[in-house]
Specification:
The chain contains 5 helices and 9 strands, in the order ααββαβββαβββαβ. With 194 residues, it is α+β, with helices and mostly antiparallel strands. The chain binds 2-acetamido-2-deoxy-beta-D-glucopyranose.
Length: 194
């Protein structure tokens, strides 16, 4: 069963990478005008994957393929698709998107804000990884990455570019709107890498 899941996941990742990073197309798009000097090199963008552990109601986001396959193999997380495209290394106009994990609740928290990071560390979170690099302001064809927070014993955070997904979490699942975590490139942005 796990071997089968692993194969499916590998296929999904291959599909995403082939579809968005193959560089076969010559399609022109708005982003062609974004200069690498100010916007970073869009050829470097990678998928920010979304995982979900239904048993403990925790969302987990990472751009690290090996963490995706490892968490799938552990058998608790389900693969939920691609939340956005982000940079794996520092590029012009971007800032680090820090990831922290709470050992007690196993929930993950993501922020670009150093004060929020310090507050989370003081509240029982520890640094997990630098998830990647995103824009702190809406530049270069980016869109808002919305943050919603479920406050409770099983605290949880959702990050999404979808207003529908955010509003569903707020209206139907008890999440609180916490604004915008940063600005990212949408998977369906029409970006063509070549
Ligand atoms: C960072 O977080 C702190 C604490 O929540 C907040 O007061 C501050 O306005 C935030 N800074 C930015 C740039 O959003």
């Amino acid at each position: 069963m796990r071997a089968a899941l692993f194969s499916v996941l590998t296929a999904i990742i291959s599909f995403v990478q082939a579809a968005f990073f193959s560089g076969e197309s010559t399609t022109v798009n708005l982003r062609a005008q974004a200069s690498p000097e100010t916007c970073g090199n869009i050829a470097d963008l990678v998928p920010l994957f979304q995982m979900y552990d239904a048993a403990v109601t925790v969302h987990f986001y990472t751009a690290d393929d090996s963490k995706v396959t490892a968490t799938i193999q552990e058998g608790t997380y389900a693969f939920n698709g691609v939340a956005a495209l982000i940079f794996p290394t520092l590029e012009p106009s971007t800032v680090p998107f820090f990831s922290l994990v709470n050992a007690r609740t196993t929930s993950f928290f993501y922020t670009t804000n150093a004060t929020e990071r310090s507050n989370a560390l003081a509240a029982g979170y520890r640094d997990y990884e630098t998830t990647g690099y995103i824009y702190p302001t809406q530049v270069c064809g980016s869109v808002p990455l919305y943050r919603a927070h479920f406050i409770g014993a099983n605290t949880d955070y959702i990050y999404t570019t979808s207003v529908t997904e955010r509003d569903n979490a707020i209206v139907n699942q008890g999440f609180v709107d916490e604004g915008i975590a940063g600005y990212v490139i949408e998977l369906a942005s029409g970006i063509i890498i070549d």
